[in-house]
Design a protein that fits this description.
21 helices; globular; iron; 4Fe4S_Fe-S-bd; dihydropyrimidine dehydrogenase (NAD+) activity; oxidoreductase; EC 1.3.1.1
Length: 595
């Protein structure tokens, strides 16, 4: 193998698995250390810079960082990264002028933002301080998009939305709320220098089954129903409720139903339990509230009596796999099952709706009637029109919308400066030694086997009485500190200096994970097999040195290293050092070469 090139942005970034997995590349270990130090406002601002909505995401994020967490490789559960974000938000206190304020002069460029959801708000946050004249359109009376309309208040209190959306809207922009865009052609004719489309995926999929029209009064589209609950238009539901679908929206629907009068609420899914799209913790929360989840049942018909819904007929199915492992659901051969109910909530997916985008303006559409969007620049076939969030690639989650917003803001800035949006500014990288003495480091490297702490919940009987009463109480400062201590600080890298190594193998002897090997070089597949502990995760790179004096190379398996620093403490020559890796993601702004 060739010597590992560690001087670029990606090598050590990929070792910080949580940050690598986060679409917005939030520096997770950094803000967790700040929480452990009681510096909550500092931790909040680290989050705010990258993910814009720490208090919102600390309650609702889909947590792509947590499955990647290094702690999950040595214990059953990862660090509660998401809920620690909430600890920073809940305890930040006054931010005392840390947030930017509206600029006094503009740069003369006008940008229209369609939809006031997380993608558009991120674009607005990044461009406002650069002097762009921003106009934010949304059909609803309040900004926030799906954050406000589709996430139940018992998961996300409205005051948290108001606070964090307000941090953005107060930066100086024209809010055209209650004003729906019905024609992109007409908007472009108003002379905006660029347009960003962050309109979400506003249409829930329906089921065209027998009885759908006859029983329509009690069959509701899940996302529309949740929006009506959020805005106070719906306050009750029947006692017997069936929720169709296995995603997070279905979990929100069933839990909301329990709070609006549903005493017999079921989630019925055509897939198996493990294949459901809902996050594991969302399913756990539903079952904690006494909501059964029934699997491998496909709806066939809605039953009704004189226009009144009486139930749903289901066919039992089973999974069948072909030679390539592809699954299909086939009838199980059992009798159909009929479940009685008063209301049905259909939560079987969302789709985009672009009737307001004319097809003769040069904007190309592709599969599923979706606009063709560049996944790097977020640009469309019209050079001044950009997309982000669910409007770009279909339904995902808030953190992806934020990531899209950051990239689109860079593109809009470069486009307005007459530069090529495909040329992306490189992120900044620093490595700084954490050495404070021969055996001391500036970070806590004590490794302990601590199980994940559970987030306290409100008493179930009390929680189910009020659809606006937050059910998760969050970590207090004490529990937040204990959970923060589980972080393995994987942004503090083990950095090896070949000229200082005397090949004494002391680091090999002391490594608790057997992840360091001094051996003859060879092809990667063969080398991985003969390390002290075979390196089986091909997605994680090996750290390979230059040839040493004996001709051997040092090989470290980054996958299992705990970043404990014992190798650096034990090394008699200082060939190993613990150096903190900092990735400075480039957003639209002063670090961008366009300025």
């Amino acid at each position: 193998m060739q010597r590992t090139q560690t001087d670029g942005a990606d090598y050590f970034h990929k070792v910080v698995d949580c940050q690598w997995a986060c679409p917005a590349h939030t520096p997770v270990p950094e803000y967790i250390r700040l929480i452990a130090a009681g510096r909550y406002a500092d931790a909040y601002m680290v989050n705010w810079k990258s993910n814009v909505f720490p208090g919102i995401l600390g309650r609702t994020c889909d947590r792509p960082c947590e499955p990647a967490c290094r702690r999950g490789r040595v214990e059953d559960e990862p660090v509660a990264i998401c809920r620690l974000k909430r600890v920073a938000a809940d305890n930040k206190g006054e931010l005392n002028g840390r947030l930017p304020t509206p600029v006094s002069t503009t740069n003369g460029k006008r940008i229209a933002l369609i939809g006031a959801g997380p993608a558009s708000l991120t674009v607005a946050r990044d461009l406002a301080s650069l002097g762009y004249e921003l106009t934010l359109f949304d059909g609803e009376a309040k900004s926030g998009g799906m954050i406000r309309s589709q996430i139940p208040r018992f998961r996300l209190p409205e005051e948290v939305i108001d606070e964090e959306v307000g941090y953005v809207t107060r930066l100086g922009m024209e809010l055209r709320l209650g004003e729906r865009i019905d024609s992109l052609k007409a908007l472009l004719a108003q002379g905006y220098d660029a347009v960003f489309v962050g309109s979400g995926a506003p249409r829930g999929r329906d089921l065209d089954l027998p009885g759908r029209r006859e029983a329509a009064a009690n069959i509701h589209i899940g996302i529309d129903w949740l929006s009506n609950v959020s805005f106070g238009h719906i306050e009750k539901i029947g006692q017997r409720v069936i929720v169709l679908g296995g995603g997070n929206t279905a979990m929100d629907c069933c839990r909301t139903s329990r709070r609006l009068g549903g005493t017999d609420v079921k989630v019925i899914v055509r897939s198996g339990f493990e294949e459901m799209k809902a996050s594991p913790w969302e399913k756990e929360d539903a079952m904690h509230e006494d909501i059964p989840i029934l699997n491998f049942l496909t709806p066939k018909a809605f039953t009704h009596d004189n226009g009144r819904l009486t139930g749903v007929v289901f066919e039992k199915v089973r999974a069948e796999y072909d030679a390539k492992g592809r699954r299909r659901l086939v009838p199980a051969g059992e009798p159909d099952q009929h479940f009685e109910c008063d209301d049905v909530l259909v939560a079987v997916g969302q789709e985009n709706a672009f009737p307001w985008i004319e097809r003769d303006i040069g904007l190309e559409f592709g599969e599923w009637d979706m606009p063709k969007v560049d996944p790097v620049t977020m640009g469309s076939s019209l050079p001044n029109v950009f997309f982000g969030g669910d409007a770009a690639f279909g339904p995902k989650n808030i953190i992806w919308a934020v990531a899209h917003g950051h990239e689109a803001a860079i593109s809009i800035d470069r486009y307005c400066q007459g530069l090529d949006a495909s040329q992306r500014p490189a992120p900044g990288v620093t490595l700084a030694s954490q050495k404070m003495g021969i055996h001391e480091w500036s970070y806590d490297n004590d490794i302990s086997n601590d199980e994940r702490f559970r987030v306290p919940l409100r008493d179930k009987a009390q929680a189910l009485k009020d659809v606006r009463l937050e059910v998760e109480l969050g970590f207090d400062k004490g529990l937040g500190y204990k959970e923060a201590q589980r972080c393995l600080n994987c942004d503090v890298q083990t950095v090896f200096a070949e000229p200082l190594c005397i090949e004494c193998d002391a680091c090999v002897d002391i490594c608790p994970m057997d992840c360091i090997t001094f051996t003859d070089n060879g092809p990667e597949d063969e080398l991985r097999e003969r390390l002290k502990a075979p390196a089986l995760n091909l997605d994680q790179d090996l750290y390979v040195s230059w040839p040493l004096k004996t001709g051997r190379v040092m090989v470290k398996d980054e996958d299992v290293c705990l970043h404990c620093g014992l190798c650096a403490e034990r090394c008699p020559t200082g060939a190993w050092d613990m150096q903190r890796f900092t990735l400075e993601m480039t957003h639209a702004g002063s670090s961008c070469p366009s300025r």
